[in-house]
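Morning - zinc ion inputs below, output right after.
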Amino acid sequence: MSSEILSTGTPLSEPEIRLARAVGVTNPERIRVSMVPALPLPVDPELRAIALQTGLLSPGMVGLTLGHGIYVCDGYVSSRLISHECRHVYQYEMAGSIKDFIPVYLQQIAMFGYADAPLEIDAREHEIDVA
Ligand SMILES: [Zn+2]
């Protein structure tokens, strides 16, 4: 999914690149954003049920970051959402790869729940609202 976003998505605008740098992203020019009607859920029924039960993916969610690829639901682009998702990009960069990030992130979601996962708290604390 990440490589699909990277090959079809849109680069960040100049103001968005500044937001990405402000939240710590090393390579903001690598980021691509893909606008989608809804965030993709796993096709596998069991995985899909787990993703929904754990709160990893919920109907109210409007952004999802996979490495340098960001999914945003149509109509929900905002500096706050972009800065939040870019902070996840920073977290991926710190982890080194998607493969290294995902197990840590999933374990936090399983242990603390979505709202209280330290990586989510960190992303919320780095949201930037530009009026
Ligand atoms: Zn988040």
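Note: The first helix runs from residue 2 to 8.

O.
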